[in-house]
Each structure stands twice: as structure tokens, then as C-alpha cells.
Amino acid sequence: MVGARHGDDTPARLLRLATAGSVDDGKSTLVGRLLHDTKSVLADQLDAVTRASADRGLAAPDLSLLVDGLRAEREQGITIDVAYRYFATPRRTFVLADTPGHVQYTRNTVTGMSTAQLAVLLVDARRGLLEQTRRHAAVAALLGVPHLVLAVNKIDLVGYDQEVHESIAKEFATHASALGYPADRVRTVPVSALVGDNVARPSAATPWYAGPTLLELLETTPVANDPGDGPFRFPVQYVIRPRTPAHPDYRGYAGQVASGVVRPGDPVTVAPAGLATEVARIDTADGPLPHAVPGQSVTLVLRDDLDIGRGDLIAGASAAPTPREELDAALCWLADRPLRPGARLLVKHGTRTVPGVVTELAARFDEQRLGASPAPDLLELNDIGRVRIRCAQALPVDEYAVSRRTGAFLLIDPADGTTAAAGLVGRPLPVLPDGDGPAGPPPGALGHGT
Fold first, then answer.
1. Which string of DSSP letters, residue by residue, matches 185-227?
2. 297-336: string of b/e by CB count within 10 Å (b at 16+)?
3. At what angle do helices 131-142 and 106-113 cross, to 10 degrees?
4. Which residues pair with 14 in a beta bridge?
5. DSSP strand pairing (186-190 vs 352-366)
6. CB neighbourhood size of 436 (10 A)
7. Whose C-alpha in 3, 329, 362, 415 is 20 to 30 A from the C-alpha of 28?
8. Nearest alpha carbon to residue 396 among 299, 308, 336, 334
9. CB 296: neighbour CB atoms within 10 A?
10. What share of the chain is helix, strand, coil (3-state, %, to 5)?
11. Which residues does residue 263 pair with via DSSP β-bridges, in sequence order?
């Protein structure tokens, strides 16, 4: 429950996590096991899964059926879309983004990890680290996910072999370190999602493992800084002017607080124009508020009558972003058609969309050898690269390390409106620029939060 308390009287905290793994690593079963063992499954849901499992000739419930909700997912045995699961323990509340493992759906993995504070990556103990495992770790590093947990699944199918687990753990630790993760941000747990070993309860079958269970790790991992600690950012979605006899002069700016906290009387700057004013009132359908925090949808009434419209950004005056027409950014290319220099796309930042041109492909990241290829000719589907974009209008962007919300943008194909890429402003690729092998940036260079 939200608001539950620890035994030491410390308030429970919300943890946003994402799961990812290659096809057949058992991710859906693991997520189903977490939901089952935390008693987050309704009785009728479990009964339906038990019946469906029996129809397939299974002696025990197939817990993956709890999460593979789409018909195509059940038929193919793979996760396709991002699904958000909610569960809780007495110590913490969780929002879990269950992301696809297949390389074809990397774009959905990017979506799921974009707000995660921790990523659980799965590997099959029989196969170890795969290409897609390395790709998922690189995506997590690029997106600034602060903590990684590697679940070495199906440990029962290798006879609970300690050497197998330790070999995989050592290889993953080396890979994560090269991506910029400090050792204390990376943990490895031997699990069997099918029978529940070390998922929510310690397993007697792994006496050589003295660490916490997966659930204990999720309950005790330090939560990243609250978005309210960052600079105030408020993308304007809509201008409210009712022009009624009761409100003849009302002008409010509706939107959702992206980061920071705002209160009446706070000085603010309207970007990109640079207009200065202060907040007069914070309105909602239920009445005015004394303050607003990230995720709240509110209407701001400002002290001065200014020319403000959809796409503008209201920011704290003391730390307003500097609008810029040139964006230097890391990019995950998500379209089937390759990206080449000179491509004309739409840049969507917050609630503003402007035309843009990709003027340079500076580098392409090889997530397998942790090297960067300078000045590639193109970026293909699922490639991660560094690009420079010239926008038709200045955008009030932040560095991604400062604000995930206002430091990120989308590239949209103007021909059909599809999302072609996700970009992160000022984000370094998770490698040294010379690409001489798996050296990676120094710990903390990627800004993995706290």
C-alpha cells in the first residue's frame, strides 16, 4: 500500500523498475512469480491461470500467463508491448515496466526504462550473457537507470551450480563497469522463477549464495532523488480562457509538472521567449493548491498578462534552461528506414514540435565490444548513436542528466507521423570516444543518479 511504513517507522517509498531479457529467458514467469508471491494476484485471476495451465497439460500454474496479456504474446510465447504492473510489500510500493526482450521491440524497452530507477535483466543460466543482454544493459546505461540487477534464471536447470552463477556474475560485472556503473550499483541473484528459488524467499538449494533475494533487493535499493528535487519545469499544454461573465479576464496555463515544485509567489521564466513573471495561483478542478509536484496536472495563473501558448515552458527563474537551436544528443534509432545525415524530421520536445535537420552523425555505439565507430554513414534500426540536430526554432531543453523529462525528445517522421527515434540531450555514449575496446567512461560519467 502507498503510505505503508517500515517497522523502523520509515515511510515506504515508491520504486519504479523495468524488466528486460532475451527471448525464453523466463521474464514473464519471473514477473508472474513476483506478483504471485507478493499476493498481488486476485483469486479469480489465479483460478483462470490454473485452468489454462491444466488445459495445456501442466501440473502447476504457468505464472507467465499472469502477464502475457495480449493474445499474440500468448501464442508466440514472447512479450511484445510494455505493460505496467503494480504491487506492494509492507516495505515499499512498486511500479514495474515489463518490457519486451526481442530485438524487434527495442523501442518499447527504451520506453519502459525511460523512467526506471532500477532495471532487472534476466539471463538463462544455461546460455549466459547474450547479445540482447548487452544491448539492454547499454540502453539502461544510456537512459541513466541508476541500478542494475542481473537475475540468473533457471539456475535449477544447471543443477544449482555455483561456478556457473559466479562465471556469469563476473562477466556481467565487467560489462556493467565498462558502461560506467560503480560496483555497488550492480547486483546478481541466482533464481528459478519457475519454482521460486531466491525470488521472494531464500532457497535451500543454493547454500553457497548468502545474498538477499530478488524481492529483498527491490525493497532495500536506495531510491533515486525525488523529481521534486530538480528544477521546476512546466510544459504548457493548453491556454484556458473561459470568457464567461463569472471569469471575464481569466487566463490560465494547463499542463503537467515535469519536475520540481511550484508555489504561489515563485518567480518563473517563460521559455523560449525569456519572459519574467511569478505564479499567482495554482488551480485545479477541486480548488486552488498551496503547491504542485511532478506528475500533477494543474493550471497556473501568472501575475502578468503575457503572450504564452502551447509549447512554451514555464520554468523556475533561478535555473531556467537556455533555449538552443542546435542539439547535441545521444539517439536510439527506432525506425526501419536508416537515418542518414541531412534527414529532415520533426523534433518533439515537451508540448512543442518543430522541424529539424540531422546535420551530423558523430558516432555509432557497438554495445557488444563497447566501442564507438566515429562518423558512421548511417544509423539502422535499434542503433545507438551520437548526432547533431539543427532545429527551425530554439527549444528550451535541459541536459538529460539535469531533467529526464525536459532533457529528452522524440524525432517524428513527417510523412506518416511515426516515432523514428528517442533522443537524450547532452548524453554521452556509454564508451570512450576512441572506441579502443571495453574501457568505458569513469564511474559516474553517465550520471546514474543516486
1. GEEEEE-BTTTTBTTTB--TT-TT--S--HHHHHHHSPPPPPG
2. ebbbbbeeeeebebbbbbbbeeebbebeeebebbbbbbbe
3. 40
4. 93
5. unpaired
6. 12
7. 3
8. 308
9. 15
10. 20, 35, 45
11. none
Q: How far apart, in whole angstroms, are the C-alpha atoms of residue 126 and residue 235?
A: 48
Contacts of 85 (CB under 8 A, 6+ apart): 31, 35, 40, 67, 94, 95, 96, 98
Identify the helix (H) or strand (E) that includes residue 63: none
One-letter identity of residue 335: A
pLDDT at 247 exceeding the cut of 80 = no
Sign of CA dihedral 79, 413, 381, 398: negative
Adjacency order of strands within the sheet including 186-190: 83-88, 92-98, 13-21, 118-124, 147-153, 186-190
Residue with cell 479469480: 44
One-letter amino acid for residue 236 of the chain: V
- Reported as a single tens digit per residue, the pLDDT across 122-179 is 999 999 998 888 888 988 988 889 999 999 999 999 999 999 999 999 999 999 998 8
Q: Say how far apart CA 151 and CA 120 lie, in whole Å.
A: 7
Q: Find, among 17, 212, 21, the residue nearest to 125 by Cα.
A: 21
Query: What angle do the packed helices 162-178 and 131-142 form, to 10 degrees?
Result: 40
> Would you state the pLDDT for residue 81?
56
Helices (H), 21-130: 27-37, 43-55, 71-76, 106-113
- Report phi then psi at 21, rounded to 5: -175, 160
Residue 375 CA to residue 446 CA, distance in Å, equals 21
Residue-level pLDDT at 101: 61
Locate all alpha helices (DSSP H) within 77-225, ordered by sequence. Answer: 106-113, 131-142, 162-178, 214-220
In the chain, the domains with their CATH numbers are 13-220 (3.40.50.300), 228-319 (2.40.30.10), 324-425 (2.40.30.10)
Average per-residue pLDDT in the chain?
84
Query: What residues pair up with 396 in beta bridges, in sequence order?
Result: none
